[in-house]
Amino acid sequence: MIPRPPHRHLAVLVLVTALVFPLIACAQEASLSAPTEAIIGSKVNVRWTGPGDQYDPIYLVAPGAGKDAKALSSTSILSRRNPVILVMPEQPGEYDIVYKPKSVGEIAARTTISVVDVPTSIDAPDQAKIGEVIKVGWTGPGNSYDSLSLYAEGSADSAKAVVGGTVLQGRKQLTMKLPEEPGKYELRYLTRQARRVLARKPIVVEGVATSLSAPDQVDIGSTLSVEWEGPGNDYDLIALYPEGAPSKAKSAAHAAILSKRNPVTMRVPEESGTYELRYITSKSKKVLATRSISIGAVAASLDAPERATAASEIEVSWSGPGNQYDHIGIFKSGAPDSEKPLAGRAILSKRNPVQILLPEQKGEYELRYRTAQTGKVLARKPIVIEPAGKLAVVFEREGEISTGNEPGADGASANAAVELILDASGSMLQRIDGVRRIEIARDVLTGLVNNDLSDDMLFALRVFGHKSANACRTDLEIPLSELKRPSVVKAIAQVNAKNLAKTPIADSLAQVPVDLAGAKGPKTVILITDGEETCEGDPEEAIRSLKDQGLDVQVSIVGFAIEDPELKEKFQLWAKAGGGSYFDASSAEELSRSLRTVISGPFKVFDTSGKIAGKGIIGGAPIVLPAGLYRVETASGGKRVLEKVEIRPEEVTRVNF
Q: Is the domain of 474 the same as that of 347?
């Protein structure tokens, strides 16, 4: 007997296994469950049973199609997710959903679904104006990324839309900005993929009579008011161009139409000539109307003293455009026009004359009228600044600070009023040696109230920045009244800085006449701040306005933790304008000393004719005066007088009471 090869049984076993395995795989049941009907383009949930292997396909085919038929829409099983989502075609009809496991390679389950159209309509005006924004509603499939777009009447469905709109699921209305070309158009509802048009709605886009109305001639740099007729759509533009400028040129000035605002205003250029106003549509930049306008030069001149004393204030009268923020500045003789002025004033509300504080250095200078936009010099006036002297008023015991309580001292006493204006804006939350600035300020003010203010004085407290973030709010926390220490200390303790609060210095100073209306004697205002104006006000103008109103007040400024040299210089100028002093404090001790100095007592200086020549703070910064003889008086109750105080040029004269 010939023995059989030892591997023969293994071969038979392998063959049997290969034949039986497909039968086992096919024996595993598979099924599909889905709605019997769905709207075109919609998404349906399809539940399945079967192998559920990763990436097994479930797809849509024509009715009765075999395993190799092209899928019209497909999805895959991922991580045995059940159900899966299948997108329906955009053509109505009968379709099969099939499941073909990869492990089998055959269709293991099939179900039928009917895909149907849904009534579709468009709701929109029959007619509207060019560029107008309209609301368009619809009924229909409402599948995300179907489109609802505007086409030229008669254009093919495959043409590019004039204006496109996208349908988002769940929304039944969209806004559409119409074209800026009049004519007949058609709104169409199109499916996302097949771009089938399901609904149409004609709409007529009408032109609008457009015109511009403005003066025939205006001055350079002036504010021009333009009335218009036209579409008035948001961001339509009224623009000014040099006559003959091409459409793509940059405008010389412009104003956008917002919320139908009419008229609109614009600042015209500071170059004379013939210009053209144009009404320009916001999107297509089409010019709908034009209007010629002439911009003319204006003769300008300056009238001021030929000679004046250093650091004194002079009046300058002017003629010229007088546009807002035109500027009259003083320059070193021969300095370029582009250089920053040494001092000056902006023209606001046509104010004439303006007051200018001269530099402290003697020499030859020039006053210049410069336009607000380009800085063009329209007028010049030479002026010679002659040397001045300085007067420093100190205490009997030099270096000490009077509190108004020593025998014979004339500090903040009877009939005197003091108003503190405290900055509690967001920057006061910063720290000095680990302690917040506002905490230091509270402690120092509490000590001032308890130890340094006289019992018979009048007191007021104004605070800004402590109540509203992102706001320019200022509040009178303690109205002017006799000093009541416990209530004042309590009010100070409740002040805290608020993050992001702004700094309305000018507006706070503008409230002083009302705040101190009940005070009969001398008035002292002390501004305590760690930053600059952030509410678009003009603090210097507000201080000068106090003087213009005839208010007998001295304004001193305590800069707390100020590091910017230019800001310190600005504060010094403001304090000079207010007849007070500027004090620089970077610690609790310096802040306390500065405040005690300010409230120790103001003084006034009179020239030989009896006219007030200057004001200052006892123990404060020296004040500048022309050479000559003066009388110096304390400004508080129980006044004391120094007669025939001589001021010599370029010297500091020191006197005490």
A: no
